[in-house]
């Protein structure tokens, strides 16, 4: 079993490897807003679980199992972000923040249904979706999809 925090580490490492080609302790620490010793402790635990290959002062690599968990977490993140912004009209920065939280707790069945719902509504009910988003924009007073008017 992998904890929410371990999923976060794996996802960050996956994105670092994908985008930078290398995973560094200092980069993980910066992204997760933790100190490098905390990253080292997490890497040791992930290595014990067979999710990363880590030796002090050596390169950090995701194992096949670690990569699969990271990819699954990241795909949930992308789907939830899309759902929150493009279907519910949530502001992108809030959608991103919420997706980071939801991705670790939402059941696979729920993710599948959200995926099916997005596909269905985009294919069969694009007008309804457009009208809903228009209503949300008008009510928020922003005029832009995904923006919420400041209530203060």
Layout: helices, strands, pairs:
Layout: H1 4-20, H2 25-32, H3 36-48, E1 52-54, E2 60-62, H4 64-87, H5 92-102, H6 108-124, H7 126-140
Helix pairs in contact: 1-2, 1-4, 2-3, 4-5, 4-6
Keywords: DNA-binding, Transcription, Transcription regulation
Family: Belongs to the DtxR/MntR family.
GO molecular function, one term: DNA binding
Can you give keywords for this protein?
two-stranded antiparallel ribbon, 2 domains, 4% strand, Arc Repressor Mutant, subunit A, Diphtheria Toxin Repressor, domain 2, disordered C terminus, elongated, mainly alpha, 152 residues
Write a structural description:
There is one protein chain. The model is unreliable at 146-152 (pLDDT under 50). The chain has 152 residues and is mainly alpha-helical. The protein contains 7 helices and 2 strands. Strands 1-2 form a two-stranded antiparallel sheet. β1 and β2 (60-62) form a beta hairpin. It is elongated and about 55 Å long. It has 2 domains: 4-68, Arc Repressor Mutant, subunit A (Orthogonal Bundle); 74-140, Diphtheria Toxin Repressor, domain 2. The protein has helices spanning 4-20, 25-32, 36-48, 64-87, 92-102, 108-124, 126-140, and strands at residues 52-54, 60-62. 69% of the residues lie in helices and 4% in strands.
């Amino acid at each position: 079993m992998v904890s929410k925090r371990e999923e976060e580490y794996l996802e960050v490492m996956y994105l670092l490897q994908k985008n930078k080609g290398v995973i560094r302790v200092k980069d993980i620490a910066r992204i997760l807003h933790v100190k490098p010793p905390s990253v080292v402790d997490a890497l040791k635990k992930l290595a014990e679980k067979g999710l990363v290959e880590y030796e002090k002062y050596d390169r950090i690599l995701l194992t096949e199992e670690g990569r699969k968990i990271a990819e699954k977490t990241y795909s949930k993140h992308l789907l939830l972000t899309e759902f929150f912004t493009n279907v519910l009209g949530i502001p992108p920065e809030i959608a991103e923040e919420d997706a980071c939280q939801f991705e670790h707790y939402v059941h696979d069945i729920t993710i599948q249904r959200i995926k099916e719902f997005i596909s269905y509504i985009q294919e069969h009910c694009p007008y309804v979706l457009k009208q809903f988003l228009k209503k949300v924009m008008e009510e928020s007073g922003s005029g832009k999809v995904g923006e919420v008017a400041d209530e203060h």
